[in-house]
Amino acid sequence: MERRPLKSRGTKWAKSFARFLAKRDISPNTISVFSIIFSILACISLYCSHESNIRNYLLVLGAISIQLRLICNLMDGMVAVEYKKGNHLGDIYNDLPDRFSDLFIIFGISLSIRNIPYALDLGYIASIIAILTAYIRVLSASIGASHYFIGPMGKPHRMALLTIVLIFTAIFNLSGTYLFYSLFILIIGGILTCSRRLLNVSKELKGLK
């Protein structure tokens, strides 16, 4: 499977951590499973933050869990490719856990503000669209076109948005309105992302790229 272009892959800390994991024979598939575990932790934290006395701490824990999920996404590919630890199931473990992770994290946001009307509905819609962006990318490759990782709301963009909103909400003790608006941004950005990817796939298949 084609890899998402990431600048962080070339950083010293990423290379050092990938080497650390590879030397201890931690498989890329295991790392991928941990990305789901961190996403579930994010979902639980966000769910429990609703009307909690330690709401802001739980929001920060949710944000940290999101970033740990992304680190797992980075490490599984680096360990698999740079250190030749991948196997025949690698493509499945590389892609499928991300879909579950998107669902747990995005719907977790809506659960944290479930007292706001239509928050859960927006969570459902945003989760479906996030999964659809990945489906279009994989579909493109399956019919002979390229993997398109373009945004404006690809996985790194979604997770960056939610992390920032969670941190700011916690630090400044903001209401859940900002988390509610973030779901709107995910939906609108996701629709644009799907449209851009479909347009690029269509152009490539027509021989225009």
How many domain modules?
1
At CATH level 2, the architecture is Up-down Bundle
CATH topology: Four Helix Bundle (Hemerythrin (Met), subunit A)
List the total number of helices. Answer: 7
* Percent in strands: under 5%
The sequence of SSEs as H and E is HHHHHHH
Number of strands: 0
Please give the alpha-carbon distance between the first and last residues.
Answer: 21 Å
CATH superfamily: CDP-alcohol phosphotransferase transmembrane (TM) domain
The level-1 CATH class: Mainly Alpha
The Rg value, from CA coordinates, equals: 18 Å
Profile the largest sheet: none
Shape: globular
What is the helical fraction, as a range of percent?
over 70%
Oligomerization status of the protein chains: single chain
> Average pLDDT, to the nearest integer?
95
Low-confidence stretches: none
